[in-house]
Amino acid sequence: MSSMSKTAPSPASAGERHLVSYPRFLWRIAVMSTEGNWLFYAWMIFLSAVALVGLNAWATQVSQGMVVTNMSDHVSWGLYIANFTFMVGLAAGGVMMVIPAYLYHDDDMHDVVIIGELLAIAAIFMCIAFVVVDLGRPDRFWHMIPGIGKFHFPISMLTWDVIVLNGYLLINLHICGYLLYQRYRGRRPNPKFYIPFVFLSIGWAISIHTVTAFLYQGLGGRPFWNTALLAPRFLTSAFVSGPAFIILALEAIRYLSSYKVGDGAIRILVNIMRITILINLLMLASEIFTEFYTGGAHTASARYLYFGLHGHNALVPWIWSSIAITVVAALLLLCPKVTKHPIMLTTACALAFAGIWIEKGMGLIIPGFIPSTLHEIVEYTPNGIEWRISAGIWAAGLMIYTLAIRVAMPIFSGEVSLAKDKDNSA
Amino acid sequence: MTDQKKSSGISRRTAVKGIGATLGAAAFAKAIAPITTWTAEQSVDEFLQKHYQELTPEQMQKILARLQAETKEQYGAEVEISDPKPQEGVKFAYALNLSICVGCRKCAQACHLENNHDRPSGNSYIRVLEMKKGSLDMEQGKVDYKGPVPKSDSFYMPVQCQQCDAPPCVDVCPVEATWKEKDGIVAVDYNWCIGCRYCEAACPYHARRFNWTKPQIPAEEINPQQGYLSNRIRPQGVMEKCTFCLHRTREGRLPACLEACPTGARVFGNILDPDSEIRWVLENKRVFVLKEELGTKPSFYYFFDE
Asked: What is the pTM for the complete model shown?
């Protein structure tokens, strides 16, 4: 076998060589995942601890029922679906690295494009986790599997969401896995095997957030969501939160590792955010105008959200802080010098990220239920169990993302490769 | 780096990793423990049970027997669960006379008892709105009204499942756990529902209820006449809703809420029967439906006496 691998490439031996090098690649990934400096270990132990606390809270929720949450028949979706909605945006936003790199052939982006795609993978994992913890009967998940269950396609928007989310996960796993494997083997990736998927992933990223918006947008009984602006607004906010997170990740990589992250990539992402954050604010203004200038019964949710209704105002601090920090982030991003000041840049990105998180969660999902369809006002604030489960999923997602970058960066830079591994073991 | 150093370094590192992995596995087992005790209580037959519409009569008989045994075991009550089917040539409709309804909420209470609802939550499929005279705007309505009824400046509007002909709740269900039966009833297979609550978000009439926990009912209060698709005690974590008491109405009886109504405000019957009282109301009264603009086509009508 080892002598075979040294012979010239031929179609017959190619398969066998993969039989050797692919398991070796996987093993190398597994080893790298458990090795790092003290900071890496501390970070992973911290994330594991939070994830386990979340897992325990979820186990309690499954055994005692969702009565342990603060959700009710009036507000039947809460923090989980809020996070899910935001996370879909993050996954879609990850592709903002891909568009400049492949559509506009920007070379600065080619080196870091994988950082966005890995983010998409981690975010989709979190999306799926947030949906699973929101199920009253997670043991019956198989009812949704086509063939053995009953998949209500194409009528239910939720089945569309299952398809686009899992499809997006597979596309990105393929692209990242293929590129990393080829780099590890020291080969040039064959464009035929990944470029079509890169373009597919661009369209697909739009689809995941559009379909998720349609989940809410299609409900006639919920006037707050029943607006054609919802899907476009989802996309613009995704294209704020995605690049914001990637910039934060790039800055972290820059300071915590020896890898060179070029300024070019960050500059492009900041330029994207400058536009999308303003479009997002413009759409917000348009929405507020329609709601309040028209008035009438359909405005009740918006009135509740922004100003409180009949003495109930639990969401008012959330939405105004979201608007305030998004505006501050927009102003910081508009500063010409923002790319040269790391502290200003990270502040702007962190604020934009937090602002969108509130807007897509507590600012969008919860007010859709308040007042209820019979105009009862039942308020909702997430409780300890819900925060713990959500934090656990965030921790698990960050763990996946950290490991993915931990593995991808050395392979991409050529520090780790099949040839070097062979030399070491020889 | 000498060979000796290298090998000792690796073994120490491996040992630490091994300890870490063991601790991690133990913590994982501890964290997941509540779920393992829960799964131990779930039966394999229940887990593997097929969708209602795919069950053969023999399979259904076995399931009914199992459910009866489980009710005995878990609630201490002898119950009889049946699976009445829709009758040919029957489509149910309901009408409610807003001129006579006094807002006493006897209907809601009867629903609670008939349908074996969870006692601590006081659940019911019916909500009664107290509305100011002169407006049909639900935003002006109140469900938590107090004091003697009827109040002279108010009228009362009970709202329950409208058994829509174009039900948004059925459209959105990702696993077809809810569907419209031939006689017009929107049913739920409690053993197929995954508990995503999308139908609850989609319903414009607040007609759906979720079992946030396992329902609690004292054995002596359990209504023993139960239907598979209606008032049997629901499992934890699934959706339920009004079925026009199909375990009663499919056998020629009237819904519990109608029987409980002290004023005779409620009219129920087969809309396909030209001689039925419901047809008389629809043909001779001015009727309206709730939220007509949403296109849900309710089978629940409201009317006023002239």
From this structure: 0.94
